[in-house]
């Protein structure tokens, strides 16, 4: 298969115009676009037969498809990708859309969790799609660590952050753990982790334990490692995926086969399947990215599109992402500036909290 750039360069002006109008008509109506419709809208006056020939050529190239015999054409996934990359005209953010987002996110008085919940609701409401918000990891410096014995085979590790947030998790301590060894493990950690973030601690504490092995006995050493492992488990990441607007994709006019695919998508999202990869969708840097259908495995079965953008903290580090899910016939020209603006606004609001 030829790449989109080479394919696009092979099209003459008439073919590009027919292709563009088919895609734009489909994105607007969701219906196949026929040759008779194009005879009324093309800038060049040509016959319906000529347009059909052009559409046949575009279909042969894999850019258009015929859902039914004698019906109009719709863009293929490859056609949508070529349109998005080469012909999409991204509008300026609509004033009404901006006002609705500002009204929802304009206050910055509650905690980060509530703020990002409102981000998801705002995006879903404005776009009439489903929204995704990946919340940042908690990266405040650590103030204090404590180990609490619950039973011979159960212990609690408590982590207190400088911003006042407290996290605690239950884990299995080493066999034979004594109260004195538990206190020694906590004292050792508190002497070296103050002011470090959780990421710093995961990276550096192992080195400190190795260098200062004589200062901590073997049982307390195991307690430290067991307690830290609770936070190091990749299966229990501290990011949270907020999904809003499920009903927007499950309307009455959705075919049964599409309903099942969309339900499967939301089941995956609610189980946080592939959440570790979600932020990586934006790893190429700033700006909005568009994933169509099977271009991302999380959305391949549902046939949906994802428009996603990262948001950054005051150090210009990507800490989360916001996005909109919808059918492949999303109004990309409108959705892209909404997602872009929301991501920038979230980054600013979170940075201003510092």
Q: Care to describe what's here?
A:
By secondary structure, the chain is of the alpha+beta class. It has helices at 4-10, 13-29, 35-41, 48-60, 77-86, 95-105, 112-127, 179-193, 198-211, 218-232, 256-270, 275-278, 297-300, 332-352, and strands at 64-65, 74-75, 130-134, 142-151, 154-161, 166-171, 241-244, 289-292, 304-312, 318-327. It folds into three domains: 4-86, Orthogonal Bundle (Arc Repressor Mutant, subunit A), CATH 1.10.10; 95-136 and 239-352, GAF domain (Beta-Lactamase, 2-Layer Sandwich), CATH 3.30.450; 142-236, 2-Layer Sandwich (Enolase-like, domain 1). It contains 14 helices and ten strands. The strands form three sheets. The protein has a five-stranded antiparallel sheet, sandwiched between helices. A three-stranded antiparallel sheet has the order 4-5-6, with helices on one face. The chain is elongated. The mean pLDDT is 79.
């Amino acid at each position: 298969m030829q790449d989109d750039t080479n394919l696009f360069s092979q099209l003459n002006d008439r073919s590009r115009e027919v292709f563009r109008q088919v895609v734009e008509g489909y994105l607007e109506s969701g219906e196949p676009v026929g040759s008779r419709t194009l005879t009324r809208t093309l800038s060049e006056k040509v016959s319906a037969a000529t347009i059909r020939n052009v559409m046949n050529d575009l279909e042969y190239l894999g850019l258009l498809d015929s859902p039914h015999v004698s019906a109009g054409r719709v863009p293929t996934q490859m056609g949508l990708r070529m349109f998005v990359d080469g012909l999409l005209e991204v509008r300026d953010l609509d004033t009404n859309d901006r006002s609705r987002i500002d009204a929802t996110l304009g206050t910055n008085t509650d905690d980060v969790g509530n703020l990002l919940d409102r981000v998801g609701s705002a995006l879903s409401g404005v776009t009439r799609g489903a929204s995704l918000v990946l919340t940042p990891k908690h990266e405040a410096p650590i103030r204090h660590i404590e180990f609490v014995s619950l039973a011979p085979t159960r212990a609690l590790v408590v982590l207190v952050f400088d911003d006042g947030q407290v996290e605690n998790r239950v884990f299995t301590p080493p066999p034979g753990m004594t109260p004195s060894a538990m206190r020694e493990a906590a004292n050792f950690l508190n002497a070296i982790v103050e002011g470090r973030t959780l990421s710093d601690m995961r990276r550096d504490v192992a080195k400190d334990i190795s260098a200062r092995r004589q200062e901590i006995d073997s049982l307390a050493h195991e307690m430290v490692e067991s307690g830290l492992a609770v936070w190091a488990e990749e299966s229990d990441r501290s990011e949270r995926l907020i999904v809003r607007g499920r009903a927007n994709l499950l309307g009455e006019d959705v075919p049964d086969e599409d309903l099942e695919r969309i339900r499967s998508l939301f089941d995956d999202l609610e189980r946080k399947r592939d959440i570790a990869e979600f932020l990586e969708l934006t790893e190429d840097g700033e700006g909005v990215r568009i994933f169509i259908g099977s271009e991302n495995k999380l959305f391949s079965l549902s046939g949906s599109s994802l428009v996603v953008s990262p948001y950054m903290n005051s150090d210009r580090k990507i800490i989360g992402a916001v996005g909109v899910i919808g059918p492949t016939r999303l109004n990309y020209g409108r959705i892209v500036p909404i997602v872009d603006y929301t991501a920038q606004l979230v980054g600013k609001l979170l940075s201003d909290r510092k």
